[in-house]
Specification:
By secondary structure, the protein is an alpha/beta fold. It contains eleven helices and 13 strands. The strands form four sheets. Strands 3-2-1-4-5-6-11 form a seven-stranded parallel beta sheet, with helices on both faces. Helix 2 crosses helix 4 and helix 9 packs across helix 11. The N and C termini lie far apart (41 Å). Bound molecules: uridine-5'-diphosphate.
């Protein structure tokens, strides 16, 4: 069982939640490597025991230094903005593909042959009939999706060529506390409600997504690390939820002090209508068993947003 863990992108939403989970589940030494492009160093204030290195994955020597004395890497650092990747595919390629290649190559030099990589089903597979699963043919629709597919390919090759334990976890739509800086729908809607603004729904609200609470995702990461698996695994709740249902649940959670009103606009071009995932491979191989009900997860998320609402003024 790895003890010393390097978390790339550890200042982000999933990274900070993962650190909280690891702290309660074992005696880990955690080092974060992050370029502070989105996350802020102060997000680690609640984890004073965590070591922080400010470095960019495009700098191979710094990455190599960051790997010193580590047993395992949890690779969360990525440029995940789909539209930005279409506007500037080269930047996305440099950050995600070159950055991950530098990391893997430095791991080879530093003899740290274990990596868990955050991946995505939606962007890699494109518009396919749900539920999505690992056996589907990848057909990325954006440079971002292509970058994630390339990264999965490099992990597979480092596993087979150099004996790495290398696994890619394809996350569905993750929500939860510590997501203030995210533009994804749950975080965005909660910030709009705090600002007293109406919600905008793109389409008629019937589009379905697989919303999974961040702690369940972090449990999946921990299991992948404990079980030392290689390969690709889809992680999600396994259930579809429409935007209309999501809004109804959020409305229940926030209560009458925050009246919820929604305006309906056209579907956004290029957006997938429905996607959710089949998690049977992860259930069998990782013992993955997401347990947070949507209402409870949204309630916890809203509590966190209320506690941090002073960020509206920052
Ligand atoms: N969505 C919406 N209004 C918003 C933001 C998102 O109706 O202000 C919808 C969006 O059209 C999509 C779903 O919420 O169907 C999830 O969007 P998100 O950007 O979180 O994730 P993705 O589309 O990448 O799955």
């Amino acid at each position: 069982m790895p003890k010393r863990i390097l978390v790339t992108g550890g200042l982000g939403f999933i990274g900070t939640n993962l650190i909280a989970l690891l702290r309660n589940n074992g005696n880990f030494e955690i080092r974060v490597l992050d370029n502070e492009s989105l996350g802020r160093r102060e997000y680690l204030t609640e984890f004073p025991e965590v070591e922080f290195i400010c470095a960019d994955l495009r700098d191979p020597e710094k990455v190599y230094e960051g790997l010193k004395d580590m047993d395992c890497v949890i690779h969360l650092a990525a440029d995940t903005r789909v539209i930005n990747s279409i506007v500037d595919p080269h930047l996305n390629f440099e950050n995600n593909v070159v950055g991950t290649f530098n990391l893997l190559n430095a791991m080879r030099r530093a003899n740290v042959p274990t990596i868990i990589n955050a991946s995505t089903g939606g962007a890699i597979l494109g518009d396919v009939p749900p539920p999505v699963h690992e056996g589907m043919l990848p057909e990325p629709a954006s440079p971002y999706g292509a970058s994630k597919l390339a990264v999965e390919g490099y992990l597979s090759s480092f596993s087979k060529s150099y004996g790495f334990e290398a696994c890619s976890l394809r996350f569905s739509n993750v929500y939860g506390p510590r997501s203030w800086h995210k533009g994804s729908v749950v975080a965005h809607f909660m910030k709009q409600l705090l600002r007293g603004k109406e919600l905008v729904v793109y389409g008629d609200g019937s589009q379905k997504r697989d919303y999974i609470y961040v702690e369940d995702i972090c449990q999946g990461i921990l299991s992948a690390m404990q079980r030392r698996v290689s390969g690709v695994f889809q992680l999600g709740s396994g259930w579809p939820t429409t935007i209309n249902k999501l809004i109804a649940r959020i409305s229940d959670v926030v209560g009458s002090g925050y009246p919820v009103s929604a305006r309906y606009e056209d579907f956004r071009t290029g957006e997938i209508l429905n996607t959710w995932c089949d998690i049977s491979k992860a259930e069998a191989a990782l013992g993955f068993s997401p347990s947070m009900p949507l209402d409870e997860g949204l309630a916890r998320t809203w509590c966190w947003f209320i506690e941090h609402r002073q960020r509206l003024d920052q």
